[in-house]
Known about the structure:
It contains no helices and 11 strands. The chain has strands spanning 4-7, 10-13, 18-24, 33-39, 46-51, 58-60, 68-73, 78-83, 92-99, 115-116, 120-125.
Amino acid sequence: QVQLVESGGGLVQAGGSLRLSCAASGRTFSGYAMGWFRQAPGKEREFVASVSRSGAWTYYADSVKGRFTISRDNAKNTVYLQMNSLKTEDTAVYYCAANGGGTSNFRLLPPKADYWGQGTQVTVSS
Length: 126
């Protein structure tokens, strides 16, 4: 079993930046593709970004491309989401997820994952 714990959320003004972290408990962290998702009130949970097991490949939703960067540090069992140029539309609960089958399942509707974190709130004010 893998436990995922997000941190780094908070309140920020539009145009600002935040970095989210997701710490995994398992020793097999490097065996999982990792992803970030978000869900705003009244909306479906949506894909934000994902990274392959080695960190060599990354994927982004069009809405965040060029502003957000996903990365991972397998030695620290941690995945990050650097969020720059934040917009009010980015306000949501952000979740990290792990998938042993690679990154493809993250982009299904609804997205599938082996493990989900509990989420961290990101609020962007105007």
